[in-house]
Fold this protein.
Amino acid sequence: MKSKRPQDTTESDRSFLGDERAIEGLPIRLVIALVIGVASLGIMLQILGGVGTFETDTEVDVEFEDPSIEEGENDVTVNVVDEDGNEVTDAVVVAEAGSVRMDNALSAQTGPDDNSVTFAFGRDANMELPPDQSTGEIEFIVQPPADSNWADEEPNNKLLVIES
C-alpha cells in the first residue's frame, strides 16, 4: 500500500473516526484547562472578595446600666457606642414611646468628651404603661455627628419598663 500525500486526503480521512491519535492529547489538555480554570476562578474570587471592603459606616447603638426600669419617675443613663464598643461622642439621642405611653419624645446630646446622656423619664415625659400591660418599651434613635463614619441604620436596643 502506498502512503497518501496530504493533497490526496478526503473528508472522511480527516475525521476523528479515522484518526487513531485523536485521543492521545485529550486527557492532558483537559487537565491543563481544569488547572487554568481553577486558578482563574481563585483570582476572580480574591478580586471580588476585596470589593466592598472600603471604608463603610460603623453602626451605633445605645447601652444601659440596667436594661429595665420601673414605671414612674426614673433617671436613666444611656451610653452611645459603636459596634466595636467604642464611645460615640457629639451624638444626639432621642427617646420615644415604643409600647409605653409618653407625652413627648426626649432628646439629649452626648458631649465632646462623654458618650452618655441622662433622661428623666416620668418627670419630663409623663411615662405610663398601657392599660392591662405590665411591661412596655422605650425606643431610641441616635443621630451620629455628620462628619463621622458612624450611622444608625439598624434598630437600637430598647429600654424595658416594668410595672412598679
Notes: Helices lie at 26-50.
